[in-house]
Amino acid sequence: SLASDSEFPAKKVVSEYAENEQNWKILEEVVRVAEESGRTPSEVAINWTLQQPGITSVVAAARTLEFLEENISALEF
């Protein structure tokens, strides 16, 4: 069974995020841009974030070398 809210407090946040229609529209747009540009959604999201005024860095985690390389490649377009 799924963890309770007390065992996994972020579960409530994730659930609320998934219920927000605007978040799904944003995700669809990110996926569309990724497909058009030949990039992954992660690359698009990181690149977009870094282009915002006042943003100088992002915090990105990578569990594998492949994910790390993908995160770094977000800086290349």
From TrEMBL:
Membrane-crossing segments per the record: none
Domain NADP-dependent oxidoreductase stretches: 16-77
Entry superkingdom: Eukaryota
InterPro entries registered for this protein in UniProt: NAD(P)_OxRdtase_dom_sf, NADP_OxRdtase_dom
Name of the protein this chain belongs to: 13221_t:CDS:1
